[in-house]
## 1
Amino acid sequence: MLGSLTGIVIFIAGLGVMFLVVPGKYVGRYVWFGLIGGLGMAIVLTSVMQNILGYWQFHDVDILYLSRVPVFLAGVWAPLVMAFAYLVRASKSLYLTGLIIIVFAAAASMAHWFMLIQGTLVYQNWTLLGTFGLAFILHGVLFYYVHLATEAEQASFR
């Protein structure tokens, strides 16, 4: 069992995914998006789902917590959202963008499934299907934000 190292292991894996997907020259372009849309959203989402609604309970999943929010586990959202933003922005097809959203939502659900099996996450009146649906909606919102940011950037160069 990974126990309290799960958050760090997943964070390092997320960094690896980001560096495999996002070319080095573009990493700086997506840092703020990753910090705000990734880390910020993860902290708010985990606070709401765990601390306010009580649907999720993380147990011994990380070595560092901030108001019961596992810091490294929340931190993995930053590099993964950076990779998501890069892929969505590079996508030339709405179908491919939809597939990217589905894959990222499925990956979030698989991460929850792994933590459920490991015993580091417990659901209370919640399901993996709910996790997938919530992740799908959140990635749809992130896609919309990337789309708006891209339009604003293009408009500023006109």
Note: The two ends are 54 Å apart (CA to CA).
## 2
Amino acid sequence: MAENTTDKKPTQINLAEVVSRYLEGLQRVHDVINYVLAGERLLNEQEYENFSRASRVMPSQATRLDYDKAKDETNNWLLKQTLNETLGLVTLYLDDCRTIASICKWKADANRSEESLQKILNEERAAFLRLDLPAKVAALKETFGIESSTADHLSSLYKARLSLSNADGLVADKDATDGKLTVQLRNVQLVSKPAENQPGGVFVTSEVGDTVRVFKVGEKSEAR
């Protein structure tokens, strides 16, 4: 019987599809947040009381939250869940970055082998997954030269998420540097400028910029 010499088709990685998958995940989080916040704008104290008291059984009715307290706790819960979801997506994205970069490096190695490929896909991946988010970012930079202009932003959001797990969501010494937790956010900001050729007119545009939030030790790292 003749030996089958048909070459295997090369595996192709569509980077656009990889990015699109994560953008779709972020869009889902964005839409859920908007849904909850839109509902909050329409909710008033009386409606909350009516809906809450419709529950015939409560775990601890004596400690039931009033409207204002429930609103604060909901906002904090939403912040925590949002960070969980988005940082979770970032973690998976960094894992894909490592895998793709490792395979490219393996492919360029003249002495590559199936054994070394399996090491990339198993042992090295398992070791990477054990790292926390800031360590993953650092490992990609050190090993492959992959870095991001938002690395400090990610690190600060990761620390903020950890602080939300503390008792009452208070910033602890372990979360802070020089007694404070600094959170860096990159967002779209409205910027106004004097309109040209229109005395007294104002031209408003949107620009991407950074916003900084500072929380001292003992303060609650909440949305504000």
Note: Residues 1-7 have pLDDT under 50 and may be disordered.
## 3
Amino acid sequence: MGRWVSIISIISISLPFLFAGLSCKKPAEPLHGSADPPVVGSVPFKPLQRRMVRQNHRNFVLLVRINVLTIRLPIGAVSRSEELWSYLDEESVGVQKSSALAMNGIRIGVGRKGDWNEVYQVLRRHTAQPLKRSVALGPAGRTMPIVFKPKQKSQTIFTYRQDITLFGRDYPPGDNVLMTAASIDYDNPEMIHVSGTFVIRSSQRRMGYVNRGGKYGIVSEPIYYRLGGLGFHISVPKGGFILIGPGEDIERPSSIGHRFLVHNEKAIEFETVVILAPEIFAAPVGGSE
């Protein structure tokens, strides 16, 4: 009898530790790779504050930093599951736009700062691969390219438009890029406006004349091919993020979703999730506030 009492005591002591270990979650990686504001040249920038906007905003130079996080997952982890999307607001893209994107194999949702931990845990359950990080930095309102798949061969893409017509064409070799731009909402500085459009940036370049400071010069620029009617405009709350992921239509090889978000490694296909976490900083013009 004493032996059984000892065994039961050991089990009763061990069970709380066992369940505690099972329920333990790895803390989410931070959305922003650096907590420090950027310094451009010798000009230090500070996080944008409401009082700066209440004052004459023309007295400040605004700088956008978009933290880009990417992760590759097994096919179907996101495109065939609603779990991840339950934490995101897809309606912020607009019903018609969200529907058109879905027909082309792409889903976009906005998450708040408090949603990141749950989103991160869902992603980590599907892979042990780390998040890859990069940063896009530029003036507010300036177009910034985010490369999804570089150095692609010639490709054929069929695009469903919002009127459900299907348009297809061949594109030359180049990069599959999301062109983005961000700015603040001057009526509500807690919100950041982000625009994006999917393009093919051709490896082929063309010569042209430009006027810079009253002087004309010849430049060589890539050719951009917009993938029609799929641009989006989203308002992101301060500390929030945009998640771009695959929809069910990535199974169609000629879809935009497949061309931008599916990668092939050693004859095995993976789908990619891209997270954009925008921040806006300000520096006073002339060095004084």
Note: The chain has one domain: 41-287.
## 4
Amino acid sequence: MKYNIYNFVTSFYFVLGISLVITMIGLITWYEPLFAFGLIAFTLESLYVLIHAWIINPICSYNTKIIRKGLRRPLLQIPFCLPRLLDTDKIYIAKTIIPNKSMFTGEGHINKLFGFSDNKLFEFNQVHNNSFRFGWKSKDDKAIEIYAYYYVNGKRYGKFIDNLLFGNSYILTIEKQSDAVVFKVYDTQNNNYVLKYYVDYKSERRFGYQLGIFYGGEPRAPHKIKFKMW
């Protein structure tokens, strides 16, 4: 997604900001029509943002996401890109990614791309109990290492899958089946699956939420990192 003037003017933040300014001007000047117009516009735009984040497009799947230096998440995930509640009996998440050189950081920990948690109802923020994500590690200036990164009953695993070359396109999928979670990496250049990785897993839990991009572990991004993923 290119960040140009058109995208900015039509963005959530711009419309919310303008409607809030109009509301405040109406409040300060005691001009009721202006206040009412700004308040209605702000309310409607806020509802649209929430519907967009939770239902239409969870985790804000714009083509390009950016983690700024010193942060762990893209700014677009804070606060409007809220995690979507899932029925974890029926999970199939697929995303296309094109790795790039900004993902080379020289650090050896596994970072997170996307996935899901598997919880009981109202058991939120339990990502370290049962969750499944694609992770990536900085390899060199030509590729990243991709991992099946998951927790089962509080135990953490990081299983290497393959190297993904910068500039190439791959489709990553996570699917929860009746007795397993399956990670798949599809190489679009060669039109074949690089690898399928199976995790034996059976759960009667019915709820969870989608998990998005996260840098770390403990470290924060050492420089600006761009993710072309949708």
Note: The mean pLDDT is 78.
